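Case study 2.
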Amino acid sequence: MVDNGSAITLVGDPVDGTANAVAEVPLAAFAEVVAIDCKAVESLTTWLDTRTRRPASQARGRRAGGVTSSAPR
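Prediction:
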């Protein structure tokens, strides 16, 4: 993360699934959060094996856009 003094921050977390890989479970994900003044307001988690996405928005409730949506392949 790079802090340039802005009130808006984008945080990315590559969830590498090391424990899953050791257990031979092919699951890994990438999570991103947009924070304004250190408060999370939007997030998106994407599972790399299925391309399933789970968005969440503080403004629209806990989850937005339905339960899941799949990215085009």
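The CA atoms of residues 3 and 15 lie 22 Å apart.
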